[in-house]
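Protocol step 4 of 6: structure prediction from sequence.
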Amino acid sequence: MNSQDQRYFFPAMTDNKIKLNPRNGWLGWWPRQGIRAILDPENARIRVFLGEQASRLKENTKLLDAGAGSRPYRSLFASQDYQSCDMPGGFYKQAHNFECYLHEIPRPDNEYDAVVLTQVLEHVPDPLQVLQEIQRILRPGGRLLLSVPLNAPLHGEPWHFFHFTHYGIQQLAQQSGFRVTDIEKVGGGLWLIGKNLHTGLLKLFKQYDPFRARKRGQNPLLCVMMNLLLLPLYPLAYLPAAYIIRPLFYWLDFADTEKSFTLGYTAVLEKEA
């Protein structure tokens, strides 16, 4: 493969080496958010990341929370000129400044100083087009505060299209006119196991919820019988997974230095001036 071919297939690696934040999402032996962060370090890390970035923005910075859903991070940007948007008829009954699909944001060029895009990019059919649109509405030097999953269960179906690596983030950034100024893994394999063991068991129980049986096209009696069969798993597997294994694996994850099985990434992308 010649150098031109390499630049086509691997632009993120040939242009410059990706420097990952060595913190790797670690929140400390006892995080500021306490036990909630230990039980759900992924969301805690995203919240800490956004809080750190909010503190670096000037007061009254014009900011758009894109695909904001229930606006869980609104309070972090109390000092900014905060706006939010979501797709028409979204999952949440939350009022937003406007509704749109993110490949066509009804705002003029160079409108915002910062855009927040958390756990959204995996739900759009064309991530590059969305990043190009966000780049358009950002002012020169404006920042995109991004979080994306790498290892996550199916969710928001059927609008769940992609997962991302740091190489993919870098390539998308370059193709859409951004410069990556910070990128960080969100934990490692033990955080992933702790999350998936708990989530997998919870999803198993929910599959046989007798109160939703008819809506799912299931036999309610069969669901009741399955609940009785699965009942021993609740004290023997689910409770230990939720309240013993998750905290234990939170701390043991510190020993995983490679973080090859990371949950995802946070990143700061800056629009080229």
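Step 5 (inspection) to follow. The longest helix spans residues 233-252.
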